[in-house]
Amino acid sequence: MDSGMDLGAIEGLIDVVMGRESVDLVVRNGKLVNVYTGEILNGQSVAVKKNRIAYVGEEIETMIGDKTRVIDAAGQYITPGFIDGHNHVDVVCRCSEFVRCVLPRGTTTVVTETSAITNALGLDGLNWFIADARCQPMRFYFLAPPLVPPYPGFETSRDFRFEDFQELMGMDCVVGVGETYWPRVLEKDRRVLEQYAEALRRSKVLDGHAAGAKRHKLQAYAAAGTSSCHESVTSEEVLEKLRLGMYVMAREGFIRQDLEAICSIKDQPIDFRRMSLVSDTMSPRMMLEEGLVNTLAKKAVSLGLDPVRALQMTSINAAERYGMRDLGGIAPGKLADILVIKDLREFDCTWVVLDGEVVAHEGGLTKDVGSAPYSNEFCESIKIPSVHMEDFRVLASELKVKVQVVRTLNETITDGIIEELRTIEGNVVSDPGRDILKMAVINKGSETLERSLGFVQGIGLKRGGLATSLIWDTYNVLGLGVSDEDIARAINRLGEIQGGVVVIDGEKIIAELALPIGGVISDLSMEGIAQKIDQIDEACRKLGSSLVRPYLTVQTLAFTGLPFLRLTDKGLFDLRKKQLVDVIIS
What is the CATH number of the domain that holds 132? Predict the structure, then answer.
């Protein structure tokens, strides 16, 4: 799927249009959505030679030969393939399963972050992920991971050198640097600024993560070269960024659903060329049942956005943001990524053409997905020894102590509160009656049990425990439970399956999802993964949790990319103070 045109390709396109050669594929008799002008043109046809569009218009008959495949759009809409400009495909499912679910529904191109696989498996894992993605019948572009790990003095992950970063910057399929947390830029973190300078030198883009950055902070962030953000949650934030020349990605996915909150921007008399719709990520269940970018367009239209504008925001706007000159629209010379869509409300695809080939029809793939082999070492990433309940003792000599507890405010944000907890035989214990559980984070790559201990409020378990290696951004091991024994049992089971999520009730394993590839990716089908995640959420609720999505909430407990208090493998980290703080304060 090379975007370059050699001399022969140029000559071939000219010959087709001038009637000297026939084309390979024609999509005829449709309503063309022209994303360049914002028009819908009736009675249009598109002629394709090899992987490129040769002609768009009405007079198509002279280009059809004996070997030309003809698709009759029968008055349906002809549109560009959908582009998701911000996703995290490098976690939970294989690329082949991702493609199987989203390509038949019209997503032909995705730009993905790579922080998960890099933190989990380093450069070797990232190179495998790129290879696995590039052997699929779909266009993948990649963003280099900016901070591995986000705070190296306060948390551990796989090593990722500046030389590794430079190697990625030299790859055409790597279009820029992934979302870089704005405080690290404004603090002039040396790693970040060196990466920024290297990327800008190579004319790559810098994606942002500007949650909470406004006025001078946002302007400094933009002045450093950051040119996009997918974290806007109000129309005012959208407008502020657009006025600074930034690209705004309106997010509607698994983690957050922001479209409704920012949709009033549609009534502003402004230019929307720098605004696109992105998923950030979709859950396996959502991809199975709904698809990907098609659902974003559908939701936007249901909120009152003009359908043609919704299509621009899911095609040409995203392509232009990343400098994809040959993608995003239907015009002569462009790569032939074409959809035939039944209507502009549901955006259901009848035909999907990618790179000039029919790859899906009526919701089913017509082209095989691929798979890149991976090293057996990738399934041996969790090296921690077998643990015991004694490994999770929080020592204190008093009968009661004051403890700094991580409190979950929602699925992604935490703060700290001071609570008094009792001790039993010199060990500070959980208090499930007040929804306070002991928590541990362990460096998964160490064979000597490098771990820290703390307490969390807001998970809601009344019995049992949970362990996971699916924790942003380090993908180490986190365990929590009502008792130290519960924590040990859950973590030991997690080690046996080499990563994933485990929920236990006493000696019983009541739900688990194995993610053996680096502790972050499963080899199961998307159906199998979705079922396992549903079982994990249900198991947590059976143990007393009232969380809507415990599977998601637990992933964020150690995440230092969002405020305010996080437990890492090094200790309890206060993001405001940028330092480790004591768990026991008296």
Answer: 3.20.20.140
Residues 529 and 438 in one domain: yes
- In whole angstroms, give the CA distance from residue 371 to residue 137: 11
pTM for this predicted structure: 0.96
Tell me, yes or no, whether 349 lies in a domain. Answer: no
Check: CB of residue 446 under 8 Å from CB of residue 410: no
What the block records as the tokens of 192 is: 């970040």
DSSP bridge partners of 27: 46, 71
* All residues at 6 or more sequence positions from 346 whose CB lies less than 8 Å from its CB, including other chains: 298
pLDDT in tens, 88-115: 999 999 999 999 999 999 999 999 999 9
Around Cβ 271, how many Cβ atoms within 10 Å?
8
Q: What range defines the domain where residue 291 resides?
A: 84-300
Tracing tokens 């996080």 back to the chain, one arrives at 566
pLDDT of 67 over the 50 cut = yes
Encode pLDDT of 534-549 as tens digits.
999 999 999 999 999 9
Q: Is residue 313 domain-resident? A: no
The verdict on 574 and 482 lying in the same domain is: yes
- 442: closest CA among 413, 481, 468? 468
Q: Which regions of 158-200 does DSSP assign to beta strands (E)? A: 174-181
Overall number of domains in the chain: 2
Q: Is the pLDDT of residue 1 over 50?
A: no
What stretch of H or E contains 425? Answer: none
Q: What is the pLDDT of residues 366-415, one digit of tens each?
A: 999 999 999 999 999 999 999 999 999 999 999 999 999 999 999 999 99
Residue 355 located in a structural domain: no
H helix or E strand, kind and range, residue 43: strand 39-49
Owner of token pair 């190296």: 152
Residue 308 burial (CB count, 10 A): 18
List pLDDT tens digits, range 408-446: 999 999 999 999 999 999 999 999 999 999 999 999 999
Whether residue 162 has a cis bond before it, omega within 30° of 0: no
**Residues facing residue 442 across a β-bridge:** 451, 477
